[in-house]
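Feature request disguised as a bug report, sorry. It would help if multi-protein outputs had a clear separator. Right now it looks like this:
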Amino acid sequence: MARGHQKIQSQQKNAKKQADLKKAKGHDQKTAAKAALVYTCGVCKSQMPDPKTFKQHFESKHPKSPLPPELVDVEA
């Protein structure tokens, strides 16, 4: 029974360490959303998550500009 107190202290210390690691990691919704934005419009520099959205954006916002080559075969 002498090791019971030591076990509790060790568990508390480990829980605090894990909480500090989780806090330092900084996983939040904002960084995850930023990582998902992989396509950047060359005209206005706005970012889109997928090629379909990128093509729709380009056709509606920049109709006079020529379509970038990576969007030619994408179906909107």
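(second protein starts here, but nothing in the output says so)
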Amino acid sequence: MLDRLPVEIVERIVTKIPDTDLIAASKVDRVWWQEVRREAYKRWENYATTIGDVYCEIQALGKHYIKREIDWITFEDVNDLYKRWINRLTEDQLYIMEKMLRNGMVVDP
């Protein structure tokens, strides 16, 4: 039954699978493998974009601090929060890439 699902349904199912279970779904068949690979790349790219956005926020926060628009305590608190967020996003991004590498999904040069 699962090997006869339309690709559109497989796409919708794959988008709802959490990162930790995503690669396991690629074992169903070739269509699932392709859709999981596509979704994993999309998530990896989203993590990279979000990390870049948070980094820009950190840079903007630093400029506000230098101009004395915010106090030191606020700067440190917000900066630490952003750094923890970047670390978490990086861990999630690396998790996806590691799973993709182990399952032969990274084929781009």
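Even a blank line would do. Unrelated, but nice: The chain has a mean pLDDT of 90.
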